[in-house]
Amino acid sequence: MNISFNNTIVDFGDSNNVTQQHRRNGKLQSCEPCRKSKLRCDHVIPACGRCVKRRRVEKCVYHPAPLTQTRNSSSRRLPSPASSSAVVVPNVIESVEITVHDQLQRVPSGLIQSSIHLPPRARAVSAPVALEDRRGSTAKDNPGFLGLTSYSAVFEADLENLGVSTFELRARDSVETIPLSSETILRGCKILSIFKDSLMVNRFINKFQEVSDNSGEAVIFPIVRQWLKDLWTYHRDTLRDQNPAAISRLCERIWRNTQSPLNYDGNTTAKKYASLTSGHNLRWEVVGLILTDIGLAAQSTDPLDDIFREHNTTREAISKRTYEAAQSCLSFCRDSESRDDLFLWFLNETCWLTSSVKGSSSYAAYQQTGEMINAMLAMGFQQEIKADSRTPFFIAELRKRNRISVYGQEVALASMLGRPCRLSHRYTSLELPLDLTDAEIFSEGEQLRAALAKLDSDGWRVPSEWNRTTYMRANMLHAPRREDIVDISLGNYSTEEIVVRVAQIRERYAADWARAPEMIRVARETPAGKSTSIVHALYMNVVRHGYLANELLLQQVLIRKLGTSADELIKFARLIFKDIMALSGRHEMLKEYRMDFIWLLAAHGLRSAAILAVELYKQEQLPVYPANPRLPRAETIRELSIFVDRLSAIEDSGMHSFTEQGRRVINCILDKILAPPRPPPAAMATPATADAASTTAADGPPLMQIQHGTTFGDFEGINFGELDASINFGNDADFMHWLDTMDWEKQGVPGISGSGSTGF
């Protein structure tokens, strides 16, 4: 049988076409692709049948001494990522486009070389899937930052006093070999398949940058744009074609890069840093960050937006796919024991995506926030951060940004869940990043100096204007005081200690606000108007509600622990609720800022709405309806009804279970308030009494001026002490605990069962 391929005729029936070269064991020699793939070869020349079928005739070579091929290797030890003191040394990566001649003289194209010493290994170019003998190296034995009470501190202090260098005592990275199984490579290939549609990726990244005011919280957007540019420049064809062999080689390359420490010094620019982590140096952290931004863009977009229809997907599908892919990238980084700025940036943005997909109350979100805190502490970023010969200016600024971002997220989560803060301002330097935009941080030279000249001595921009860094700095006016309030709420303090601590909180709060720019102080006192852009309105809302929420929580603590009046609590709850209703009512919120819309309703709105609903219910139960009630009845009922309707829009969010529980309870309270009162059993015996009660209900004040001890609706025999206590919740966890423990079925409230609810 003759087969013609690339002008080469191979006769499989002629035994003379079989190679005459033998191995030392006497068997015929296999061609290089079959040998490296560990597949059976029929030894036909000039090309074996397997290579002909795979259209790899040009690769089918019988090397006379395959084990004598040279390999480039380096035993040079690389420094720890945490030190970041070495001169930039780019990884040596073999090109995937090599000729047959080059293949005979150099390492096979499938072999990805990095700046580490690896034992000899080989892989066939034609192999579609990675083999089980693939290996990588990772840096392992560095425990990270060690403080003054660590086991090594005493040695370092004493030896330094004696003039002895302690460099050798410090933990260094060692090289270990870990297997890269075919399953691992396949997982990576599945992740990279998302990048097949470059248009879709670019559109979602652009959308995310638009809704984020072209400014990132964890990583600046100019770096993300550089990553995307290099991704398409170097790998567009590979990602588009999704050829199994090429994708597996790219996947292995990304693994080698991720396992190699990232090296830079104080002179490294942001643009140079971006190139060190993309293109041929692409890492799983970068892949994961891009995927996370795609997922966040999908979560922020209206499910009916044209972008989903045009790319034949849905909001739920792309959110789930990018979330799972980002989690896989995170797992790869853990396996490689990544511990650098890239990993922290990735963790930060992944926490946002997890909270959006799974819900802020989920254990997954709580666990990932804890991992982010642990990573930051292990890298020593709780200490003073400054630019020096080892740390570039932009890295120092982004470390400060991420530090206050991590701290702000933890304090917000702790107050919402009623749990202790896992990161405290008592042990963390909260030096603020400079009030610079992403473009200014990415800049260098004269442009950077001009941007720095616009700042005052405290790092605020002059004249003041809103950007993401401005709002992050403003948020730090509230976060430490919020932590102090949570501490009082959860701690075991005497009455005298509580009074002293509350006074200290107010004193520190006043001192912090006195140093804030006028623009920030005005935003605290005045809600954003309808003419304010939605992005700036959200920035201003963070400032205003940070202050109001702290006052609300403080009042709850005082009521619960000191028994003070609830007047101030109702006042702050109404202010927050009105702001939430005004901001969430803007049409842009649900269409383009869904994540912010959900967070506003769930984190701020539901707390204040619950307080107002319970207070209104108590107000309706008074024996004599007050002439000047705390809450205007009609207005409060109307606003609560609209709020409940907006909560129903949160159906495909991780916060749905929590908001649905609150929605049902508020609905139940409204139903009881609006339902006509049930007449007393004795009055039901005579029609005349029933008619009189009906007339009184129609003509009298709302819900009648119910006499003390009279039943109300289905709440016959209810102990309102539980409802009285509900107004004194110190946090959302207390409120949800009340929802869980209230036996609504026993009290006759239809459709509500505390035993089946989920705590928050």
UniProtKB/TrEMBL annotation:
Q: Which GO terms describe its cellular component?
A: nucleus
Asked if the record carries the keyword Transmembrane, the reply is: no
**Which keywords, in A-to-Z order, does the entry hold?**
Nucleus
Q: Where in the cell is it found?
A: Nucleus
Which Gene Ontology MF annotations are present?
DNA-binding transcription factor activity, RNA polymerase II-specific; zinc ion binding
PROSITE patterns for this protein: ZN2_CY6_FUNGAL_1, ZN2_CY6_FUNGAL_2
Show the stretches that span the lipid bilayer: none
Q: What Pfam families does the record tag this protein with?
A: Zn_clus (PF00172)
InterPro entries with a match to the protein in the record: Sec_Metabolite_Reg, Zn2-C6_fun-type_DNA-bd_sf, Zn2Cys6_DnaBD
- Coiled-coil positions are none
Keyword Nucleus in record:
yes
Q: What is this protein called?
A: Zn(2)-C6 fungal-type domain-containing protein
Q: Which organism is it from?
A: Verruconis gallopava
